[in-house]
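Residues and backbone
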Amino acid sequence: MARALFEKTGKKNCVNCLNYDWEQPEDETSIQQCARCKGPSYCSRQCQEEHWHNFHKHHCKYMAKEKVLPMSRHDKATCLVCKEVTAAGLVEILKPTNPVLPCTMALVKKSPLSFPLAEMTGQFKTKAEATITLMMRILLKMKLTKHPVWVINGKMAEELQESLQDARNVCWGVYFCFIPGPRIDHALAYSALEPPVLKIGDLVTTCDELLDAARFKEEEELRPWDTFKMLASFLFVLNMDVCKLTGEQMGFPGVIRRRRVTSAKFNDVWQKVLDKMHGGLVPYQTLVQVMCGGHLKQACHGCSEEVKVSDAILLCKRMRSVEGPALLLGMFSVAVCGKMPCVYSCVQADVEETRNRREYVRLATKSGADRCDYCAVYYKGERVHRCSRCLTKVYCGEQCRDQDWRVHKLVCREGEGEQVGRKMKRKKGSKQAKN
């Protein structure tokens, strides 16, 4: 499975260079796969050694199928999700009013991974994977309960389920390559998840249009489809949130001054929604209350009238219609009473923030390489420390430099010819660096 994930892109990349935002070599013939597991590829022996000591040595033997990591393969008898399903009983699971969600891993056969499977441990590596998995389980629940999404167009619903599985496979592929921490989040948000998430968005929009044409509206307490769309909305704006975080870390004043919702607040709300759904579906109003910061009573952004919010909608490209009092969450978070003038004023305010979005993207692109090679945090406009010997590694401070030396000393070589391209890149991209 690991090999298939690496070969799927059709382009050879040095995974160590990807971790540090280094330029890929123009000559792809210099990039060679790990001889043992045939998984990640490297442009040089130095990159191979560095990635091995930092990360790959913990995964290689499992990717080569020489050993099986405990809890890396689905086992129905010990799967935490399957245990919940068994405890609830199949008859109860088939009831739309039952909150327990089925296990999707029971339906697919996967080779053992080189890391523990979340269904076996209850721990996800990223919020993105946790969200995608929840969406898959909700969609399967909707299939078992004969929800209109499956009744109206079962083929499209099946395609949506497959797209979600593709997105989760992408997450797993990133876990095979990237050092845990901010690098994984950046890899998922900037490029890896974009194709499957765009497809998921198109399918969700089409399904919504079909439901509207059939005049279907969820009015039950749990509302699985509305919950599904709420979760999907977090994925739709994930890329912009990472760009926003860059602006905040770099302290860009123009963006910070006009900003309404910080990256920290966005991620806090996202995590709280996931925490609420740890045991399965919950009343939709409970999730709306989480999105509102715990208070359903809010003042309308347009007319200042106090309203009780009944829905939460993310302001994004695929924003759905507003019916009644709702919380609109985008570059800012405001409540609207549902009247068209108030909704329009809020949407217009979001449109005006387009300049901010462009600034976030511009700044993220310009500063993409200016991250500490140990903690992966941006420099924040400060002078930074460069390894004076090889000139390839840059750190936000002496502490990170010293902590990375444990591995870096094994591969640091003064004046290594094959690293000239990286030295030049670092010199151009990090003028603030000091040796």
Q: What stands out?
A: Residues 154-177 form the longest helix (24 residues). The beta strands are 32-33, 41-42, 297-299, 306-308, 311-314, 326-329, 333-336, 384-386, 394-395, 433-434. The longest strand covers residues 311-314.
